[in-house]
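Backbone shape codes
____________________
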Amino acid sequence: MNENKKLIINMITYPIVFIITSLIIEMGTFLSLGFNIVPQYFLLDIFIILVFASIIFVTSNKIAQFVLTIVFLIIQSMISYVNITLYSIYGDLFSFDLIVLGAEAFSVFDPSFIKWRFILFLLFVLGAAITYMSFKLKDKIKYRFKSFTAVIVLLIFIVSQGISIGGYFIQKSCLKQNNSSLYSQYFENDLTMYNRQFIKSESLKKFGTYPYYIKNLLNMAFGADNYKQYDKIKEYVSNNVYQTNSDTGLLKDDNVIIIMCESLEWYAINPVLTPNLYQLFNNGYSFDNYYSKSKTNYSEMDVILGSVPTDNAFTNSWHNSSSSLLGNDLCFTLPNKFKDNGYESIKYFHDNTGDFYARNTTHTTFGFDDIVTLEDMDIANKADGLIGHSSSYTRDSDMFESCKEIMAPANKKFFSFVTTITSHGPYKESNKLNAEYETLNNGKLNEYIDWLENNTNYTYPKDKKFQRYLFNYLATTMDLDKGIGILIDYLKGKGIYENTTLVVYGDHNAYYHDLAYKMRNVDKSDYKVSELYRVPAVICSTKLGKYNLKAFSCPYNLAPTILDLTGIKYNNQLYMGYSVFNENFIDTIFVSQIGGIFGDKIYSDNVTQISASETLTNEEIEKFKKNATIFYDKQFNMNLVYNSNIFKKFPELKNFV
């Protein structure tokens, strides 16, 4: 074999190792996620892998080839591991708009999240590839290119790039397209799914890791859609939909305090341990079938904004300036609506640091005049109450005690939004909750277990480990209850309880340690059981009184319901849900930002494949699909509203808000 042949064969070795290893990692990832072994459009994945392989091939240095191969494979492995971790915890997948949350994700990490089997798989596959490539490094062939060899190498590179890129575009042109109806445009059109990636898991299943993340990067950098469709956006906004009903304005001029409770579950609300919460939910307008499969930041935006931008973010500093949302005029948010209607105190409270989820940056854009976070609170020993520190979170009761006077100023109309933290997982012992532990150990835990077994469908865990997790979780909710009691006593003492509306809701279930599954006696693989995501929500006002809403509801309903009750006119085009008093409320479905579309007794990952109760008729299933189509089309229009900053560019449109 002549020297030129040996050189070419040696140069091809590293790209081949990369291709084989990359495909093995891809298959292992898909199987671990519960997908098919390869993507539906597998060739799309292969063609992009070949693009990277040809880049490795043309590198004119053996060590550089070695390093590039390892770098590409490690990046793929890291993304795969993060995906498997996120998917097992939230049902979510990594996307580049989540990079800004990296510090937050790390700080809430718990050793129980580690996927050891997949780590061992990655170590074995990467180890084998690195060992083989290290062995090939010992070959004495040097990359010295004579003119003829250089031409051959260049030709191979050009041909491989041509095949890869050409094949990519040919395969892309073959993606299934169906525009026969609005439903088909969204759920039977793979080109739309590829371009917009509006259902993450479905996009990854269909196209594979490399196509998904290359497109995700391009969407982040240049925008998934042309947001400068100003005439279309103007028409959408000006088509104002506002309907009144017999309950509109029932709470007009009431002060409003919204409390979003971290990981609050129904089994935490009971007369034994949390009497204040129990009274609120038993005497208020209770949303008995309120569902939220979400994360804290999304649950906040669902209510504060009434929607969540899905192809842009407020905190991605590396966006091109035209796509940043931080400079937006968001005149439709709850704080801005209350401000425009004469409320003088518009404040946000959270007992963690202001940089967590960048709240000190984003929430001024949302319309709050003051962002009161842990740094601003007069709380003893608060330094060890930060997420990620070794001790414990700040007690919610301390926040309410410290902030009650500015949370509910007696001499002003106020709108306050409070996000709690104490019941955030993981559920480990905390010396700040010793008083609650003592109460539980002195008989109250046994009383609670009796109440749970005789009054609910929840199951007290048999496993000692999960009993301890529940014990610690209950202690956190007892502190929350204490804090809410402090607030209620203050409101009554100042004589403003009668004209203050309290809205209390859970952001999501207690997913740490799979506690939500254990308490419902549901296997982790049965994630389509919608009962897993049923969490508490209530509106409390002496004027509204007691009512148990049995219909399906979700976070999208809260903002329009609050505006409806307080008599503040709003444009329903700008909110993803309807007021519970609106005639269209019966069409409510919940589309989770972390995966899953569901309604009453029905669940789907992608709208086309349905898991439904046997009692549902075909007509009800078709209605669910229709409502999902309407939702995604509305989400598309809201993304245009966000990305265009339409209210700053055309202030006259505020007349329609």
